[in-house]
């Protein structure tokens, strides 16, 4: 299937390290439709409007099959579906979406469980310190492999109530699923699918057993709360529990890896900001918000479709068409943000699209924010004279979940 030059530029790995000039080109025409490709929306107010428009569906079953022929491989896949499970709620529309999200949110945060994330602060800090302690007597690290990957998956394990002795198995499954989102072009595709499917089966079997264990003997973890949870429409089915737990693992892990890694890269490129954070840890809160605007972990949402014809910015997008919302482009829109290409942790009025908006706004945002704040504060405080070994670093192939695959850092030790 043929696609136009701008779409090819977005998905071209050669542009992964710096896609922002392409986004600036896109914004000259808020809605771009090239040849038989998707409708690409790149400006802040248009993206914001569509994220809040009930006529926009997240359910792939509403996509016209003739519009579904998008670039193959995982470069534009945020998450592959497990054929053995129903779609996670982020890929559903109301009322199914609302029922499942409400059941998932009840044990996760406000207003029902307002202190669950806050109560994890001490444990999150201990995990961060243990990982950084492992850098002792080393003059260099790969931030991704040594820190950004293991930290969030350990947090998800603790949140779900995975026994400590089983955490290494969980890490292995998470690594395999992450690799499926960032395929090595030299790896045999059939073998990758086989290994990925095997990991999905093993993870599904493990989670299924853990769910039954929590039915018999509930704890104070989130999985126990999800198993026991009931709303006006009842509770989650067993398969819905599995897909929600898998969503927490994959979505909660992948985005936080990129948020922390992109954040450290920005700090190392802006040593004055790194020094300010080291001296004033409270700056972590606005700093993370600016990171979510300046270089968000989720660059675009490629799985949206109108339920009826929609007019936006003078363009009619037909029912069933494929729509891409380029969040990272909207975050750099000069019609919304002053001097948008400048990294400014003191920025005010920072209503970014880093976690989306509307009914599908990021379910795990409170946890991701806290993880990034604690991680970047501790790294700034404890790494002695950290320097980039290469700039730009090697990036993952995925255009949706964009971040460095490795971030080699030289340091003089630990503080």
Automatic annotation (TrEMBL):
UniProt xrefs under InterPro entries: Cyt_P450, Cyt_P450_B, Cyt_P450_CS, Cyt_P450_sf
Region Disordered, as annotated, extends over 58-89
Q: Which residues form the signal peptide?
A: none
Please provide, alphabetically and separated by semicolons, the GO molecular function terms listed in this UniProt record: heme binding; iron ion binding; monooxygenase activity; oxidoreductase activity, acting on paired donors, with incorporation or reduction of molecular oxygen
Q: Which keywords appear in this protein's UniProt record, sorted alphabetically? A: Heme, Iron, Metal-binding, Monooxygenase, Oxidoreductase
Composition bias (Acidic residues) maps to 70-83
Record-linked PROSITE patterns: CYTOCHROME_P450
Q: Which Pfam families match?
A: p450 (PF00067)
Q: Where is the composition biased (Basic and acidic residues)?
A: 58-69
Protein family (similarity comment): Belongs to the cytochrome P450 family.
Q: What is this protein called?
A: Cytochrome P450 family protein
